[in-house]
Amino acid sequence: MTAMEQLPTDTEVHLYTVGEYAALGETEYRTELQEGIIVMSPSPKLRHMKGLLALARQIEDQLPEGLGVVAEIDVDLEFDEPDEPGTVRQPDLIVGDEAAFERAEDQGKLIRAADVLLAVEFVSPGSRRMDNRVKRAEYADAGIPNYWIIDVNKGLSLLACELTRDSGYVDSGPIIGSTFTTTKPFPMTVDLTKLVRRQAAE
């Protein structure tokens, strides 16, 4: 029996805790947990995946010791008690405490938001509101210090959001199609032009 076959039918109502969601294991679909409800999203398109891999390579080359970068992995936003319906998101990319990531894997648990220093989402045609509003608010509430929203569909841009004590995430506007240099969560430079390589036929 696959994990997806264990999900309830339309006539059943069950709100999942984070532990129950984690116990489902891998599925053939990309899923997240939203206040106890399992939601599915379409698989990323080619340009999305190429940009994601290119960014991961650039970040990995500049990582300080003790930090790791992971793509498309579940993160427990830790909004709720263990026995209550939970919220789990799957950012396109995260950077954080590598030792904590390994411990979570060894213990069969999900990565905690508290161990994430940077979450990245690549905007898809159907995810613009989710990435810019819903996840921006959720990641701020979860205490993730830095959140990047990258768009490789409408031009090429990176919006870097930094968590503040009183105002949630703040940003200074998108970086458009150039080089992005930052000290948060560690000193690094990202060449945005390498996130998308359009062929002449496109």
From TrEMBL:
Transmembrane segments: none annotated. One of its GO terms (molecular function) is endonuclease activity. Residues 20-155 form the Putative restriction endonuclease domain. Gene3D superfamilies: tt1808, chain A (3.90.1570.10). This is Uma2 family endonuclease. Keywords: Endonuclease, Hydrolase, Nuclease. Pfam families: Uma2. It comes from Actinocrispum wychmicini.
